[in-house]
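Re-run with default settings, no changes from the original entry. Doing this only to confirm the output is reproducible before filing.
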Amino acid sequence: MGAGKRLLLEGVSDAVGFVGGALAGFGLGQAFGLDVFAAGYGTASLLGIALVGVGGGLGLHAARRWRALQRQKAED
């Protein structure tokens, strides 16, 4: 695989993982009644924002693990 294609795959998979994880965190926060867009910075709003951040980080991590597994399969 060429360097350009590899970098494009890396960028797209990172973006999809991060956005997907952030949306999952947002949805989980909404399910628990944590409104990210509430006026002010109350406890519920901050916990919702934290869930979005944690979800994005976990999604990014999952995307990178997926790429590592794909690379390992290609080498075998």
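The chain has one domain: 13-75. The chain has a mean pLDDT of 94.
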